[in-house]
Input
Amino acid sequence: MAVTAPQTLARSDTASLAAATRVRWTYIAPTLLAYWIMSMFDKSNISIVINNPQFLGDLHLAGQTKLLGWLVGSLFISYGVAAPVWGWAVTRYGARNSTIVSLVIWALTCFWAALAQSYGMLLASRIALGAGEAACYPVTLALVASWFALRERGKATAYWWIGTMIGPMLVGLVVTTLILWIGWRGQFVSLGVLALIVPLPMVWLLVRDKPEQNPAVNAAERDLIAAGAIENNDDAPGRILKGVESVWRNHRFWLMTVAISSNAIFFWGWSGWLPTYLRTERHFAFSTSGYLTFVIYGFAVLTILIIGRVSDRVFRRAPFAGLGWASAAVFLMAAAFAPSAAWSVALMICALCAQQVGISCAEMLMHSVVGTADMGKSQGVRAFVTQMFGAFSPVMIGYILAVTHGAFIVPFAFLALAVVVAAGCMIALAREGF
Output
């Protein structure tokens, strides 16, 4: 199933494509990677913070699993509410401007969290951070759709998606170390400064909304991107888009949204409580549980890089996604019942890697079910639905843990069921050839 170029381009300009610049890979892809790593730092650090005895003592939250669950989940509620607004902003003001504003918001909310003297103040800062983080999906998918040919979008998606694992992976190492050195308040300050000195200058200097706006892009690269657009390829899975008048009546988009939302239940419930599970259920020390997250997420990074290349070659992503999610459910329950802490960690690694096969392929598949012009606004709506589900998960787990006195079997069964639902959505898309 090869993507073809328009005949006029194929006859006259094929040779020139070899001389195409690679701005999309040297400017856009690295910037999106840095953006997502920073995003995940700001979102995921709270899972380490709520596991820190000093923090729990300072804000009088020891044993308050319901309140701790809201610290994790509240971000995703505001994230979901604000996402459609960011989708509109991307369409109206462009992805570049939206990204710059979002990074400034992230930094300010980190400084706010560092000053928190009460649970309510910290909760408010997390809600504000969620509103700023809501820009992530609309700006990212809009840039990928504008800058990369369809045949490249698996690799391009893997490029930024590994940031969603590198961020939590480094959080386990960096944030744990920062807390031990300068305290939980100091690590919030450090993350705020980091947002201003790394991804913000990259966006300002390197990113433009479209290839034709960047003088470093030559005609050959512009032609390559245009020829590879989903709308110009009759033999790609996304050819069905030509017969879809509105993204809102596109049932494939909604299947994708349900699947990714179910995945959010799994991932944010699991990641939000993972350090606590390792410390309280498997009896690792605070520092050890934090550093173990570095190892677990490290395996997921390798998985994403591999699946990005494989899926671009096979070009059918729904079967990979379904198999990955179904396997994640099995591995997670096996980890819950594992007789030893070492076996539980090993099975957790398998569960996360399998889950990443599912969500990585799903993010890539989104480019085959939504057209370029609809990408920004559709991803705003998708993020609204997805993050509402994601917000529900860590909060629900907090309540379940309060009822079960800290036992994780029931929460894990709840998370496993979520990815089974996601796998079911992929079966429907696989039957359509995706």
In short: Residues 211 and 311 are 25 Å apart (CA to CA).
